[in-house]
Amino acid sequence: MMLVTAAVVLPGPAGESIVDGGVLVDDAHIAAVGPRATLEGVAPPDTPHLDFPTATLLPGLVNGHVHLAMDASPDPLGALLRSEPATLAVDMAHRAARLLAAGVTTVRDLGDRDGLALRLRDAIDAGTRPGPRILTAGSPLTIPRGHCHFLGGVVEGVAGIRAKVAELAAAGVDVVKVMAGGGHLTPGGPRMWESQFSRAELRTVVEEAGRHGLPVAAHAHGLTAIADAVAAGVDSVEHCTGMDGQGRMRRYDDLMREMADRGVAACCTTCGPDWRSVRAAEGDDVARRTYERLVLLEQFGVPLITGTDAGVANASFDDLVGLLELYHWLGFPADRVVELATVASAAAIGLGAVTGRLAAGYSADLLVVEGDPLVDLSALARIRLVVARGRAYPAGDVTRPATMTSTDSEEGLR
Ligand SMILES: [Zn+2]
């Protein structure tokens, strides 16, 4: 057992807080949450106690859209395409460790090659590497020469779709990713706003994934691709830019209403450097219009997932907070932003009963940050402790796990 206490505990849901509270951890799970005095009363006498009297304790954060196989450099595909799988696997383990050190205890990896994220997921699950819980899609489904075709998920026709989804399911993926439309990462492929699959083909993806009990995440910038993905019954739409046939961003209120009605989540990926540079170069009004869809999706009641697309250019593995500051700048209250990055995102990726919340029975995924993120959201970057499934990393130092055995430590970041 381990007792973690802090000046304030934010269990996750907006509006909830416990002054001078804590969490009692039993192995990989949370045994109890409450006021310090109560927990001290129920904890066995020699329970290790980590006390942070000037800090805030909250659930570990969720980054719902990352690419561990990419290096966040200006040319993220270069390294990915040049690397041998063994080298890439080591780099990916380091990136996972960086995510964890920055307080992220759960990620969805939505575009990988050679099943590398699957193996990393299993190593982290087994406790031989530090890292967040990974839900991985493996190779995303795409068309010949389509968006990210080099990741190995090219399919043709209904039979091809079924076979690829079955193959991914057999390999053990957690989610199926389909490139419903084009993307800017792929030279020569369809343009961002163009569709890659028909509505009927997307239905086949959803149907086949469903047969294997898997959710579907659809990459879509174009309005048609978003509409087709939603109609096909996907679980989440990634990016959700809303571009018309000329590549101009449009409002799509009716479609947002439909997403809300069907419970289709939106993961509007961006990262701190990107939105800040739009704001710096083009001013507040343009920046607000560029990211207006986040506000509208919230108003229409679409479930939101916080995701940075970590791995693509500018999107580093330790800056989820940079994205959360965008939500706050757009007018989301700080407690709602914390809720989005924890409870809400966990629920929208299918882990609502597992993580994202400080409550008895949940996974012991905790974050302790100096100060109060409800007063100053950037406090989320001042990390004192990260706990992932019961393993504690003081000051987010993933090379010094406090509760690992010596064997585990040697494995560490090697
Ligand atoms: Zn992506």
Task: Give a quick set of tags describing it.
13 helices; binds zinc ion; 4-stranded parallel beta sheet; Urease, subunit C, domain 1; Metal-dep_hydrolase_composite; 414 residues; 2 domains; alpha/beta; disordered C terminus; 7-stranded mixed beta sheet; TIM Barrel
Task: Walk me through the structure.
By secondary structure, the chain is of the alpha/beta class. The protein folds into two domains: 2-60 and 357-407, Roll (Urease, subunit C, domain 1), CATH 2.30.40; 61-348, TIM Barrel (Alpha-Beta Barrel), CATH 3.20.20. The protein has 13 helices and 14 strands. Strands 3-2-1-4-12-13-14 form a seven-stranded mixed β-sheet, with helices on one face. It has a four-stranded parallel β-sheet with strand order 8-9-10-11. A three-stranded parallel β-sheet has the order 5-6-7. Helix 5 packs parallel to helix 6 (199-211) and helix 11 (320-329) crosses helix 12. The longest helix is centred in the C-terminal third of the chain and has 19 residues, at 272-290. It is globular, with a radius of gyration of 21 Å. Residues 404-414 have low confidence and may be disordered. Zinc ion (ZN) binds next to loops. One of its GO terms (molecular function) is hydrolase activity, acting on carbon-nitrogen (but not peptide) bonds. This is Imidazolonepropionase. It comes from Micromonospora coxensis. Pfam families: Amidohydro_1. InterPro entries: Amidohydro-rel, Metal-dep_hydrolase_composite, Metal_Hydrolase, Metallo-dep_Hydrolase.
